[in-house]
Write a structure and sequence with these properties.
Order of helices and strands: HH
Strand content: under 5%
Shape: elongated
Distance between the termini: 25 Å
Helix content: over 70%
Number of helices: 2
Largest sheet: none
Number of strands: 0
Amino acid sequence: MTDIESKDHYSIELEKQKAEHDKMMREADERKMEVRRTIAKLRRQFKKLLEKNQELPSHLQLQRKVYHSCVICVYVRILFDVFPLLLHKKLAQKKQTHV
């Protein structure tokens, strides 16, 4: 079997590399969407909590400072829980392709 030498065609190796790159890009897009869905879900939950807080009598409501610390906690949770899992998954996939 001979490789195609024409400049108008991909070589077999380049075709494999392109297919692998396309696969990695699709997987990265899927991971991004997963993170976006998680963030959207957390935002909806947070909005519901804000609404419930507004329904409480004023002396029982949480102050705005508490909300900001809650938002920071959510983002820290995402950074330390979600992203490392995604990174670990990506590194494992790269390791499999190089073995």
